[in-house]
Amino acid sequence: MTALAADRNTTYREGIECEFPVKASTQIYAGSLVMLGSDGFLIPGADTASAKFVGVALENVLGGATDGAKKCRVRRKGVFEFAASSITQAMVGDIMYLVDDQTFDDAAGPTNDIPCGRLVQYVSATKGWIDIGAAWIS
Questions:
Q1: Binning pLDDT at 50, 70 and 90, where does residue 110 land?
Q2: pLDDT digits over 17-46, tens only?
Q3: Residues 6+ away with beta carbon under 8 Å from 88
Q4: Helix (H, G, I), strand (E, B) or coil at 49
Q5: Which of helix, strand or coil describes residue 104?
Q6: CA distance 122 to 105
Q7: Residue 83 has pLDDT above 60, yes or no
Q8: What are the residues whose beta carbons fall under 8 Å from the beta carbon of 15, sequence distance 6 or more?
Q9: Residues sharing a CB contact under 8 Å with residue 45, sequence separation 6 or more, in sequence order
């Protein structure tokens, strides 16, 4: 491609919600933390190497017979309350990492350190609010 020499009518959308193709035979639950596996298909959040967090599933989807046969709407931005493994008030503002599809923790917990947001409100050692939009820019 060459650089523009005139105005361009660029297609736009907010990007708060996006659809991702689901891994074959994989159950995604509404309200769960989700990520893309190394093959680029949506899977439940987990402490899995080479995966990338993408957001919170907005619907319950069971993947089809082949990869990508079904899609799931995912919210990529917002502040959500999830379970935590062992957080403290002092961690507010810190990046948090995936443990599973409903749990996050600080870097000392998970092995693969897949960022899923920043802790914005401490509720208890086992619950907090994370800003998931922060995971995309961490």
A1: confident
A2: 999 999 999 999 999 999 999 999 999 999
A3: 122, 125
A4: coil
A5: strand
A6: 12
A7: yes
A8: 76, 77
A9: 32, 33, 34, 35, 53, 98, 99, 100, 101, 102, 114, 116
